[in-house]
Write a structure and sequence with these properties.
The chain is mainly alpha-helical. About 70% of the residues lie in helices and about 0% in strands. Helix 3 packs antiparallel against helix 4 and helix 8 runs antiparallel to helix 10.
């Protein structure tokens, strides 16, 4: 029962639409502007750098908080990972947005920074380097999360591999439209205003 309640708490934490709240405070409906996504990239396109940074921090904090809560309650390594994944699912299918939401990248990174810090740091570095080189945020997410299981295998405990595979699959499925646009060359670059 404790695990179920923590999983629900993780989903609820993830459901908090940080980007929508921040953009909404500036009079912008994030779901009707730019890409319609509630994540930091769309906040950057529609409102600017500071709101985007606050969104990134807030979305990461949701994932970190879910894992920290699970760890505090001593549910075990596998359960910690599942509760972290529930926060990612909460972000992508937000309870407060009629089960719509973002891609889960920042929340996933927040989970990793507590659940598997070395692999989490590697994922952030790979994402940042890809974005700096290509200026395409989605490509950074796709590449960094595609190789997350390898990062876990090389840098962390092998017991965390199943969780990393599940997280990678969720993130890649959420980026299916981005993958199509990357193939056709129509994916927008970071910094382009909506």
């Amino acid at each position: 029962m404790k695990f179920v309640l923590l999983a629900l708490a993780g989903f609820l934490l993830g459901s908090i639409p940080v980007g929508k709240i921040i953009a909404g405070s500036m009079g912008i409906d994030l779901q009707k502007t730019g890409s319609g996504n509630i994540g930091a990239t769309n906040v950057l396109r529609t409102t600017g750098k500071l709101p985007a940074l606050l969104t990134l921090i807030g979305d990461m904090a949701k994932g970190s908080a879910a894992v920290l809560l699970a760890r505090y309650c001593e549910v075990g390594l596998w359960q910690e990972g599942i509760i972290g994944i529930m926060s990612v699912l909460g972000h992508t299918f937000s309870l407060f947005l009629n089960f719509k939401g973002g891609k889960g990248v920042a929340t996933g990174l927040g989970v990793l920074m507590v659940y598997a810090p070395p692999a989490g740091l590697a994922t952030i570095i790979i994402w940042l380097l890809t974005v700096l080189i290509t200026r395409i945020s989605s490509l950074g997410a796709i590449i960094s999360f595609s190789i997350l299981p390898l990062s876990i295998y090389l840098l962390d405990a092998k017991e965390k591999l199943p969780i990393s595979v599940i997280m990678s699959i969720i993130l890649l499925v959420r980026h299916k439209d981005n993958i199509r646009r990357l193939i056709t060359g129509t994916e927008p670059k970071v910094g382009r205003r909506a």
